[in-house]
Amino acid sequence: MMVDARAHGARNANRQQGLPEQVASYVRERIFSGEVKPGEFLRMEPICEAVGVSNTPVREGMQLLRSEGFVQMVPRRGFIVASFTRRDIRDLFWAQAQLAGELAARAASNISSEQLARLDQIMAENKEAVAAGDSQRVTDLGHEFHRQINHAADSHRLALLLGSVVKHLPNRFYATIEQQVDATVNEHPQLVEALRTRNTRAARSMMKKHIATTADHLIAKLEEQGMWSDDTAK
């Protein structure tokens, strides 16, 4: 079968455009997990090896992180992790909570029986994953749960805005925070019940509270790891 060269080129271009974001995502995770701390230099070679890319996407990913305020460039020396505070984290989650809360409220008005059934299935699978200690599966199911709600809201532009905020937040290690796993198991069923009963006010409120609680758990985790050595980083 003949392959359209233009389509092939477009796919390659899209892949190349995605590599810097892969780098940025990897470094964000390391920052938010406490593996690297403010003031530490980020060496290019280990990042290239970890992500499986060349120097160019790494440099582009670093510039992306610089534009987001996660890293700073030191002339002739490279990039260091920028300082950030507890308030910075709470601000990011506050923005996420406002958008996700509105999407949940709209989902309560629009959600179908099929979509509710899918949420029930996700929650059942999540319980199994938690019992098995499968942290990656717990993380994936958590993302899928929220994607289903955002899709049910049928508000594409609002979902895109939420996505632009969420990409600044860590993805992979929520399932390592015991309190966050417990909150998911306990709060997701309550949220689904609000959706099932078409209670827009409750859906909005529960979603906002759920995300705000996530911020508290993340901050507590970073404090345990010594992210902030004194009380100046409020």
From TrEMBL:
Q: By its UniProt entry, which Pfam families does this protein fall under?
A: FCD (PF07729), GntR (PF00392)
Q: Which UniProt keywords apply?
A: DNA-binding, Transcription, Transcription regulation
- Stored SUPFAM superfamilies: GntR ligand-binding domain-like (SSF48008), Winged helix' DNA-binding domain (SSF46785)
Query: Residue ranges of the HTH gntR-type domain?
Result: 17-84
Looking up InterPro entries in the UniProt record yields: GntR_C (IPR011711), TF_FadR/GntR_C (IPR008920), Tscrpt_reg_HTH_GntR (IPR000524), WH-like_DNA-bd_sf (IPR036388), WH_DNA-bd_sf (IPR036390)
- Keyword Lyase assigned to the entry: answer is no
MF terms from GO for this chain are: DNA binding; DNA-binding transcription factor activity
Which superkingdom, per the lineage?
Answer: Bacteria
Q: Known PANTHER family for this protein?
A: GLUCONATE OPERON TRANSCRIPTIONAL REPRESSOR, TRANSCRIPTIONAL REGULATOR, GNTR FAMILY
In its UniProt entry, what is this protein called? DNA-binding transcriptional regulator, GntR family
